């Protein structure tokens, strides 16, 4: 029994589009020279391509640049608006943070700045708040003596 | 002077705010983009509208564009995505409105040709193209009319070269069968 002929119809498009390697190209040409089915297919595909080539394209209705430019310019204010909105939000957040910090300061226990500093000093040195003035006193005593 | 610059160079200048570079790119590519969209949509009005949309996107995406000498496939990718989303919208609208398929929409709107036979063939080919599935049609148009090679088509369609090969094989077989059936019907 004779084996069924192998056709190369899947390669014909690539052959016509010059997308095959030189070896594949030669194989397609050799095959089409001996296979009437593929040869007919090749001729039909060439005819389809000629018909497609006959479909000419039309010109744009009007030049496009003016329309593109107008739309670009129109979209710019939107960008500015969003940048402004971002800035306004940042400012609002800043004001809120400022108010919060301010409220913390006003609600803090009434203490004089010297006490505040002595607290900080004691936190750092681990000394009591009475120590700091005494240190100053000691220093002045030493200077005096 | 600027007219002699490559597409990639113009894109880089455009990204830096040089509007004139964008203008040159639009003028350089508006015809091929329009023809591609007209063939995809079969409507010059929609092709004009989406052509502008394509170039607007081109300008807006300029900062992110990677200059690799593949501007054409990048541009046709934008246009192709827009065309396909428009075709999908059309289908949905047709489905909502229960509209039947129109077969002579684009052809009848075109100016009369002198050669009647040639005109009939053109109408026949346009109709056959319209009947192709969207992706097959896009591949055929990019190959046959825009002369993109398989690699460029793959880039423009966001797919592989072997997928392009398959799409083109199926599309051309469908066109061949469709056109030969029509011819037989006529004779």
TrEMBL record, chain A:
Gene3D superfamilies per UniProt: Anti-sigma factor, zinc-finger domain
Segment forming the signal sequence: none
Regions crossing the membrane: 83-104
Keyword Transmembrane helix: yes
Organism encoding this protein: Eiseniibacteriota bacterium
Name of the protein in question: Zf-HC2 domain-containing protein
Sorted UniProt keywords: Membrane, Transmembrane, Transmembrane helix
Keyword Transmembrane helix: yes
Domain named Putative zinc-finger: residues: 13-38
InterPro entries the UniProt entry points to: Anti_sigma_zinc_sf, Znf_put
UniProtKB/TrEMBL annotation, chain B:
Key word DNA-binding present: yes
Residue intervals of the RNA polymerase sigma factor 70 region 4 type domain: 123-175
Gene Ontology molecular-function annotations: DNA binding; sigma factor activity
Pfam families: Sigma70_r2, Sigma70_r4_2
Keyword vocabulary terms for this entry: DNA-binding, Sigma factor, Transcription, Transcription regulation
Superkingdom as given in the UniProt entry: Bacteria
RNA polymerase sigma-70 region domain sequence ranges: 25-91
Gene Ontology biological process terms from the UniProt entry: DNA-templated transcription initiation
Transmembrane parts of this sequence: none
Matches recorded under PANTHER family: RNA POLYMERASE ECF-TYPE SIGMA FACTO, RNA POLYMERASE SIGMA FACTOR HI_1459-RELATED
Family: Belongs to the sigma-70 factor family. ECF subfamily.
Protein name: Sigma-70 family RNA polymerase sigma factor
Organism: Eiseniibacteriota bacterium
């Amino acid at each position: 029994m004779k084996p069924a002929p192998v056709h190369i119809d899947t390669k014909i498009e690539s052959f016509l589009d010059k997308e095959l390697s030189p070896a594949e190209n030669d194989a397609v040409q050799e095959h089409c020279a001996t296979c009437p089915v593929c040869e007919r297919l090749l001729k039909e595909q060439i005819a389809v391509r000629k018909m497609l080539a006959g479909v000419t394209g039309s010109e744009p209705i009007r030049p496009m640049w003016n329309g593109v430019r107008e739309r670009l310019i129109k979209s710019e204010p939107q960008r500015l608006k969003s940048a402004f909105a971002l800035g306004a939000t940042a400012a609002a957040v800043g004001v809120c943070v400022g108010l919060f910090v301010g409220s913390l300061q006003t609600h803090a226990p009434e203490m004089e700045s010297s006490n505040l500093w002595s607290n900080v000093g004691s936190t750092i040195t681990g000394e009591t708040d009475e120590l700091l003035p005494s240190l100053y006193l000691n220093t002045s005593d030493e200077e005096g003596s | 002077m600027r007219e002699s610059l490559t597409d990639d160079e113009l894109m880089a200048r455009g990204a830096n705010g040089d509007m004139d570079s964008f203008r040159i790119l639009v003028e350089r590519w508006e015809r091929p983009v329009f023809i591609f969209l007209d063939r995809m949509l079969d409507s010059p009005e929609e092709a004009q509208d989406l052509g502008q949309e394509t170039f607007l996107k081109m300008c807006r995406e300029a900062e992110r564009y990677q200059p690799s000498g593949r501007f054409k496939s990048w541009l046709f990718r934008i246009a192709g995505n827009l065309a396909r989303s428009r075709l999908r919208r059309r289908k949905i609208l047709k489905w909502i409105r229960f509209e039947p398929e129109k077969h002579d929409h684009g052809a009848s709107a075109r100016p009369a040709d002198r050669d009647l036979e040639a005109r009939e063939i053109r109408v026949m080919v346009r109709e056959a193209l319209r009947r192709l599935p969207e992706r097959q049609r896009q591949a055929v148009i990019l190959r046959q009319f825009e002369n993109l090679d398989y690699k460029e088509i793959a880039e423009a369609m966001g797919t592989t070269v072997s997928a392009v090969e398959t799409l083109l094989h199926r599309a051309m077989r469908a066109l061949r069968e469709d056109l030969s059936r029509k011819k037989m019907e006529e004779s």
